[in-house]
């Protein structure tokens, strides 16, 4: 029997809700088809906004991270939330005998120590970067030796002509809120970014979770992050 995750269940619920909603509209607002169509569109748009705000794991996680960053109660909260997101959205798990293997961490969120550091990893955690194509700035908070995302995300991201990029270093970025880019983080290949100097201020609610200050060339990692990237 196929498995139904939370996102699929929500979509099914919305579809089931649509029929009685349309019946209600037809009863209370007359039989004019144009009017019913406009009202239906407004209800669906309102429902869509509500689901993104109240039924989205990302929205609740971002609120939690913002509150915890203000209270400075836990330096590991970002990693915990990342691991929970990986579990929530479903990870590729392999089995050995009767026991399932340990869950895999994606998007440079692994808690294993990145040592030794390969010479071909060009950039370091704490460096400020700018995206070559989109123009936003940000700071590196983690890296993988190659793209580490679920396979279903790799295929649309890297078409056949760019398949070789999957095997190049990838970096997790906290995006500078001052750019107004609309996203708070990014996971990009090495060829998409370049390091910039002289930009000390990166505005992001998680900066104090990852860094304790700025040394003139890059941000200084918090002790827990330095343990994960001892050579950066």
UniProtKB/TrEMBL annotation:
SUPFAM superfamilies for this protein: YccV-like (SSF141255)
InterPro entries attached to this UniProt entry: Clp_protease_adapter_ClpF (IPR053189), Hemimethylated_DNA-bd_dom (IPR011722), Hemimethylated_DNA-bd_sf (IPR036623)
Signal peptide positions on this chain: 1-18
Top-rank lineage group of the source organism: Eukaryota
Gene Ontology terms, MF aspect: DNA binding
Keywords: Signal
Name this protein carries in UniProt: FBX21 protein
Hemimethylated DNA-binding domain span: 120-222
